[in-house]
Amino acid sequence: MTDITSLTLTELVKNIKDKNLSSTEITKAFVERSEKSKELNTYITEDFTSAINKAKKFDEKPNFDLKLPGIPIAVKDLFCTIGVKTTAGSKILNNFIPTYESTVTQNIWNQGAILLGKLNCDEFAMGSSNETSFFGNVQNPIDKNLVPGGSSGGSSSSLTANLTPVTIGTDTGGSIRQPASFTGTVGLKPTYGSCSRYGIVAFASSLDQAGPMSKNVKDCSLLLEVISSYDPKDSTSIEFKRNKYSEELTNNIKGKKIGIPKEYRVEGMSNEIEELWKKGIEYIKECGAEVIDISLPHTNYALPAYYIVAPAEASSNLARYDGVKYGFRTKGENLIDMYEKTRSDGFGNEVKRRIMIGTYVLSSGYYDAYYLKAQKVRRLIKKDFDQAYSKVDAILTPSTPSSAFKIGEKTNDPISMYLNDIFTVPVNLAGLPGISIPAGVDKKGYPLGLQIIGKAFDEQTILNIAYSMEEKINFKNKITDWWIK
Ligand code: GLN
């Protein structure tokens, strides 16, 4: 039999249900491989002993009616897990053990899954390369010199390296789709309000969404089905009829209208991305869909608007880390001094930069010129999409303007780092669902992704389009296990 850890989620579930594999066998296989894969630095907290115990318990009294029966899963360290340290990649949460569970992870455990551990990420999910993590950078299994993307870089790397069968990330401006694109995997950001934000360490509350990351579209649809739910504990959670995404998945997309936005042909985009996009358009036509040119005129303003709105919300959300709550404290001479020292010691540079930008754009005299203006731009971006969706069912774009870049390449150039989010950010600003699927490789053999953006609450359509394209593209990731000790 093939190596257990290289099986997809769907295959593992089938093997468990058919009693070919036990949860203990599967969990041990992922734990053993993770033990040998420390060089990648994907885990912040391992929960391996407890995972194996839970797997044994599951095998004693299995429930095969569950959707994730006895399946071990590692999650981004931004999801609060009861009794298990949750750091958000930050020193300031270095000794924080939540007394509550995020709704999204609770949904996963309710379906029989088992926590393997907490995965590395950019500090408070601010970054595109996982280099802002207090716990160090993560390597991309494709090539040791490459970043795995960010902020869900520990998730994308673990998934690609077969350390977890699927995983979950969060996406505020691209943090699921960009790392998926950099590692040749699938990542979906659901519609804002689809997955509960309860128990997720907040970055920018009007943009943050949790979502599935997987090796194929089928697994992605199954995991979305599990995590998407209405939650009264999140005031922005939305009650709508959720599909049975995995059961309703079909590769029949005949007659679907797919928009190609001309504004996504940005300056400086490599020919390879342009070629990939063209190929994607051909594939989609072969699948029976109709391709239509559309315009999203305010695309150019999405990035500047995002880098005002997101830091503004972050500066407000991060005010709670004051040395009084959450454990970490640096002593001071008085209360104010303690606040200042705690925050200077506890936050990294990128987080401090965002807090400063955020407080600046929210301060009196600048609020109207920056924050309010950015909110107006956001409204226009949403309007562009609304107009496009009167003509098309979904939109096809590249996921990122380049393949994975080198570790250290953009660390000292925040603007060039931010530019990496150019294709993903508009989707968050408009609250829409978007999925990135692997679609090819560049000259160096590094994966490249295509993004399919859907109408609000219409995850099923983008999953179906992704599913039919996946069949045509037939992408295979090349992993050499160079990191295995
Ligand atoms: N790279 C973007 C940022 O740094 C997006 C991060 C995210 O989606 N969490 O803000």
How does this model look, in words?
This protein is of the alpha/beta class and 485 residues long. The protein has a single domain (7-298, 382-473), classed as Alpha-Beta Complex (Amidase signature (AS) enzymes). The protein is 36% helix and 13% strand. It is built from 15 helices and 11 strands. The protein has helices at residues 9-17, 23-35, 48-60, 103-110, 153-160, 177-183, 217-227, 271-286, 302-317, 335-346, 349-362, 367-388, 414-419, 425-429, 459-473; strands at residues 43-46, 72-76, 114-119, 167-171, 186-189, 209-214, 257-261, 290-294, 394-398, 434-441, 447-454. The strands form 2 sheets. An 8-stranded mixed β-sheet has the order 4-6-5-10-11-9-7-8, with helices on both faces. The chain has a 3-stranded mixed β-sheet with strand order 1-3-2. α4 (103-110) links the parallel β2 (72-76) and β3 (114-119). α5 runs parallel beside α6, α7 (217-227) runs antiparallel to α15 (459-473) and α9 (302-317) crosses α11. It starts with 8 loop residues before the first helix and ends in a 12-residue tail after the last helix. The relative contact order is 0.14. The mean pLDDT is 97. Glutamine binds at residues 125-128, 151, 171-175, 203, 310, 421. Glutamine binds next to loops.
Descriptive keywords:
single chain; 485 residues; alpha/beta; Amidase signature (AS) enzymes; eight-stranded mixed sheet; three-stranded mixed sheet; 15 helices; 11 strands; globular; binds glutamine
SSE inventory with pairings:
Blueprint: H1 9-17, H2 23-35, E1 43-46, H3 48-60, E2 72-76, H4 103-110, E3 114-119, H5 153-160, E4 167-171, H6 177-183, E5 186-189, E6 209-214, H7 217-227, E7 257-261, H8 271-286, E8 290-294, H9 302-317, H10 335-346, H11 349-362, H12 367-388, E9 394-398, H13 414-419, H14 425-429, E10 434-441, E11 447-454, H15 459-473
Parallel strand pairs: 2-3, 7-8, 7-9
Antiparallel strand pairs: 1-3, 4-6, 5-6, 5-10, 9-11, 10-11
The structure holds glutamine.
Glutamine binds at residues 125-128, 151, 171-175, 203, 310, 421.
